[in-house]
Amino acid sequence: MLANGHQGTFTPSSKIRMNCHDCTLNHLCLPGCLQHSEVDLLENIVKRNRPLHKGDHLFRAGEPMQQVYALRSGALKTYLLDQDGNEQITGFTLPGELVGLDAFGNSSFPSFAVALETSLVCTIPLADLEELAGHIPSLRKQLLVTLSRELHEEQQHYSHNRESAEQRLALFLLNLSARYSRRSLSATSFILSMSRGEIGNYLGLTTETVSRLFSRFRQQGLLEIKGRELHLMHPTSLNRLNSIEVQQLAV
User: What confidence category does residue 18 fall into, taking pLDDT thresholds of 50, 70 and 90?
Assistant: First the structure.
């Protein structure tokens, strides 16, 4: 059962008919490293759940870690709570990405994951995944690569905390651009699933600062924004605000 109380099974009318072979994101997820016959083995352990709606939790800190998840559509945010109950956002999950890996080696999830919009996830039971990875070296390697990438991204994120607010927001937008590009989607036009406040929380900035920077970037002709729709007019100009090449931002 999901943390929000949704069961992992469907009635026939609500069942989502999808498999790993047909998924357009399988090159980003675990099937991307597998042979056709190996994908069949992975498909046998994957469960597909009812949609999460905005505000629904996929899991909560302290819950038993019995599965990992792959996001098929929508967007999630992960966060921690400090001793005063304040939320600290640790990341945003896009389709094709795994979530819950920070619990590997632990008996419970250390963080929370909540839907930013209607989202679909694939559930992969941990015990079955570990057993399968023991028989498929490429799957085991892919899990290690994914864990290593997440650790690297977390280190990069915290290394940017001393940079200017302008640089931090530019890096964030370029990171999103690179991630959408990897999904064969537009690298310059996309929807921001997260609010200004959530972006600010993640970057260590106030909501007012984020809003002011968006206005400044718009006035400088770097982007256009209408509601949640964002269009990057000059990604290379955004990149000049930083000392990091845009290719290093791909995840």
Answer: low
Residue pair 73/177 in contact (Cβ under 8 Å)? The answer is no
The three-class DSSP label of residue 125 is strand
**Kind plus residue range of the DSSP H or E element containing 80:** strand 76-81
Q: Which residues contact 212 (CB under 8 A, 6 or more apart)?
A: none
Cα dihedral: 165, 209, 76, 73 (round 10):
-90
CA–CA distance from 116 to each of 123, 162, 170 (Å)?
18, 28, 21
Q: Which domains are present in the chain?
A: 30-158 (2.60.120.10), 164-249 (1.10.10.10)
pLDDT over threshold 60, residue 235: yes
pLDDT of 214 higher than 90? yes
CA distance 10 to 14: 6
Buried b / exposed e over 29-43, threshold 16 CB at 10 Å, is bbbebbeeebbeebe
Helical axes 196-203 vs 207-219, angle rounded to 10°: 110
Q: Is pLDDT larger for residue 161 or for residue 3?
A: 161
Instruction: Kindly report, residue by residue over 174-213, the tens digit of the pLDDT.
Output: 999 998 888 888 899 999 999 999 999 999 999 999 999 9
Angle at 79 between CA 78 and CA 82, to 5 degrees: 170
